[in-house]
Amino acid sequence: MEKLNRRTTLKLMGLGAAALAMGRGLAQQAPTADQLVKGKNAKLIVLSQRPVVLETPYDLLVSQPERTPKEILYIRNNVDLAGYNTVEGASLEGWSIEVGGLLDKPFTLEAKELLNLPQSEVTMVLQCSGNGRSLYQPRTSGNPWGRGGVGNVTFRGVKLKDLLAAKGAKPTEKALFITAHASRQGGAAEFVRSVPIQALENALLALSMNGEPLPAVHGGPVRLVFPGFFGVNNVKWVQKIEFAEAENTTAEQMPRYRVPAIPNTHLPFLPQEPGGRYTYTFATSRPNWLVNVNSFIFAPLEGQTVEGPYVRVEGVAFNDGIVPIVSVELSADGGRTWFKAELEKTERSFGWIRWRRTLYLRSGAHEIMARAWDAAGRSQPLDGNLAWNERGYEWNGVMRVRFTVA
Fold first, then answer.
1. Could you tell me what percent of the chain has a pLDDT over 90?
2. Beta strand 399-405 with 305-306: parallel, antiparallel or unpaired?
3. Is residue 39 part of a domain?
4. Which residue range(s) make up the domain with 368?
5. Are 122 and 350 in contact (CB under 8 A)?
6. Mean pLDDT value across the chain
7. Most C-beta atoms within 10 A of its C-beta, which of 133, 245, 367, 372?
8. Does 215 share its domain with 315?
9. What are the GO BP annotations of this UniProt entry (predicted)?
């Protein structure tokens, strides 16, 4: 009996060790994007499991140059809403939105009422303000985004100003900001963002994206969208909208999503010593609001070998949509000489503008740079690291692509 017990004990110990090793192996196999979010492409890069943060691989992004499909669109969620990690639409039934604050006639509406109001549509660049963060040196804090935290999408819904008109409501003269609150159902963490009252002109209560019901993981059933603003300001799962005299003071407004700045100056940022720390206050920093001017090279791709000597270079450019993109320039000699690309269109746009140019390049290794200019005279710095900030926001240095001409 003693031998049997010893043998059994040793066997159980062996099974336990095997199970432990197997458990460790399973733990090391991180879930893929499609396992985290139903309907997402498995190739998306998982930067965070909770809350979900997924980056679009650059080759997937450039494969869809017109509109970025929901299956490959990046995700940057600051909170997880239980049951909403899917690209399928969420039901409007039972969803209500409170609109108040400095409003002469506060009201609450059932979201399904929006279907009966005039619908508007906008194509816009949706971009995380941390997109390109990994290009800053030294490394900054936050998810290590490459260039895949961006997409070009079409939202459709009801303009906030049209909703106010339908309800006979107007913001008071003291209202200087629009503050949006995300739903906290299921015990979700608080998420609140404020933008200037001027954003009311184009603000949209989005119900659909790319002609389909707004995906739950991207803010469905209703997302408050501000074209021309960085993604963080486009509040998902919106359930409360306030008109206010000042920015809200929650963590996502202060100290997060801000860059060093001197108020009441024309400087886009206050240069910060790379690797240094900064004290963020409302007086010494500005929020990540308007998208800065930027351009991406979609072809050739980094490391490619292409046929020459005539090489087609193409990509996209975008800004905040306040003024049009007027030029995209290319350089193949380190910035000594520049060639203008042909723009697809030259009018104002919240979406990205496609551009192209054929260059004569001899066989061998090459590096192409691209920079965009807009009608306000804004462009991209040759050295994006000039805007280094400890959280790695708003990278817009010129894009450089190295490739070989056969």
1. 90
2. parallel
3. yes
4. 294-405
5. yes
6. 93
7. 372
8. no
9. sulfur compound metabolic process
